[in-house]
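Case study 2.
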Amino acid sequence: MPALPHLHLEAVIIEVIVTESPADLRSHALRGTTEVRGEGQRQDLLPGLAVIQFSLWLLERPLLRAWKSGRAGVTGLPRSWDREAGAGMSKQIKGEAPWGFRPAAAARRLTMRQVGVPRASLAGVRAANRPHRPPLRGPGLLVLLGLLAGLAATPSGPQWPKPVFGRLASPGFPEKYANNQEQRWTLTAPPGYRLRLYFTHFHLEPSYLCEYDFVKLSSGTKVLATLCGQESTDTERAPGNDSFYSDGSSLDVTFRSDYSNEKPFTGFEAFYSAEDIDECQVPPGEAPACDHHCHNHLGGFYCSCRAGYVLHRNKHTCSALCSGQVFTARSGVLSSPEYPQPYPKLSNCTYSIRLEEGFSVSLDFVESFDVESHPETQCPYDSLEIQTDKEKYGPFCGRTLPPRIETKSSTVTVTFVTDQSGEHTGWRIRYSSTAQPCPDPVAPPNGHISPVQAKYILKDRFFVFCETGYELLQGDLPLKSFTTVCQKDGSWDQPMPECSIVDCGPPDDLQNGQVEYITAPEVTTYKAEMRYRCNAFYTMRIDHGKYVCEADGFWMRSKGDKSLPVCEPVCGLSTRTTEGRIYGGQKAKLGDFPWQVLLFGETMAAGALVSDDWILTAAHAVYKQKEDASSLDIRLGVLKRLSPHYTQAWAEAIFIHEGYTHNAGYDNDIALIKLKDKVVINSNVMPICLPRKEAESFMRTNDIGTASGWGLTQRGFLARNLMSADLPIVDHQKCVAAFEKKSDPGVRVTDNMLCAGLESGGKDSCKGDSGGALVFLDDETQKWFVGGIVSWSSTNCGEAGQYGVYTKVINYIPWINNIINNF
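Prediction:
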């Protein structure tokens, strides 16, 4: 704290904040100030609220009692303080403000006021601290002086620099100064600061080179300026509006007047203040304070470094993090940090080249070489050394490129050490390696190697690639790729493979089809061609055309598809004529009705094969087997009902139309049987076609359909031989009317049915024929299709005025396709 000479104490207001809240403290500390007034000037005794330390022994019990009674004007003093004072205890109050003030007790405010002033609020006390108040008198002054002594004590904790500023003036200013005067002021700022001085008034005697009266400004041994006159001329300098700065933290100001002045000169008035020195600003011709980044702060600065560097312990130099660099490539480049810019100071760099045993490293210094040297001593400052497991090279320094170094070693360590001075660009080394060569490889027929080199040495490798349509083989083992590496003994680690033509192998078997070779029989190598053919009674769904053996080893169509074609059974082919009967009908011959199916379950029934693994039949014929499909005995290719020669099939599942109700009429009397296995199609076992959209044009009234089966004959016995007959389609309304005359109201002809037969009777399907197909010839395709399924008729088969009723298949095409496609 600065001394207080020639000051008259007018009033002292001290606010003591005892608090546990730093925020509370800062709030009061920023408001509070201790003021001392004198000679018309105001000075801050403490900036803000500094560390306040006092002892309660100053406050004796009588004084405390007096204060409590109002004589001392003390407010807010708790009783606990009275007890502690009586016990001789002392307290120290510290804060957490930037200048080190820290609280030590519960929040309280103690206001010391002039003795004799009535008890009042803190605001009233502050209002009382105004100019022209009566001087402080009485015993309270002793207490206040004791507190001031505590304020002047050395504060604890970190301290901010005290502000340095002030005013200088010539003797007697603003009156004229006297002759033969000399006065010197020495101004000092804290470390890291400089002093700025400027003049608000300057009126001195002018003289050549300021020989007579002058103000001289000096900083250390350097004279900053010698000033005189009122305005600058060629031979004298006046300050004008200039500011003057010290070189360091001190500034000497000297005023001198000679023995006479012809005119009244009023002298000068100047003001000064301490300012932070920006050490990061580099004056011309001087070295920067920091190698990389300089950060100025009040009273000083600090340095930091770029990535890849670390700040040296001298706090100014940035040393490169360049140790532990390892190079494992067979060739490469290494250089001093920042090359070709000057390398960093106080650095220790190590570069390690680590190759496999068998290599020999060679070093070539390239471009430029500039390492600090000494004319008399070998590399005392900065040096470059090279160490192998066999020999040491160097140290190297100076400006001459060192010669090529053949190390004959696979491991090399380069060490580069720099001191704290000098600006040199460093060095650059290109390294390479050699080893014992391997024999030149020769590519196999239909293949080539890569890369092709004039010489192959240790760790060199090459790949073998085959031409399109050929594959790599090592013996009989196919290879996806081939690489071989040159070993340190000069041999390759793998024998050369061969390139063998790709063989796609025999084409995949086609169900119900066969392969036809085009190029040559059994030839399956690259670019060979073949096609698939379907067996007799099968047709290809989509003709995929030719397949070619491609380079990837797969048979592929011309469109790039590898999938196999599908051979589907032909349908609707028959060898029969359109003559004969069922009830009183004609015997069928083999091949007449190859779709005919004989079903043995609870009763005998029939069905029609519609694909190689699906059978169409009536729902009422298989209803009792729907939960036990495997019990259904299915026979195909049967001509004589009891013949042992037939194709056996078994059911996997039975699908009854969801709209069918058993024993409640015959609407939706349709079902599908899924076979466990596909049957082989031939002239005696072949599907019937399903009707096309245009099929109804072949099923108009009086169009002829054909029914077949082993049902009851005119004699009342099941037919031994498959029987068939042609039946005309009956007008639908006529058929409906014919059956409305029947006494059974539960059986009616619906739109899902069609009728066939003669009004005179004599031709009809009968018991045992249920589920069989009523087929029609498609005149456009010349194939037979199923138009109806034998469903029901009158009790007496072939009765006049009655007809056979069939499920109308065309109404169920969506249902049939949905079941077949989704099972």
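The chain has eight helices and 52 strands.
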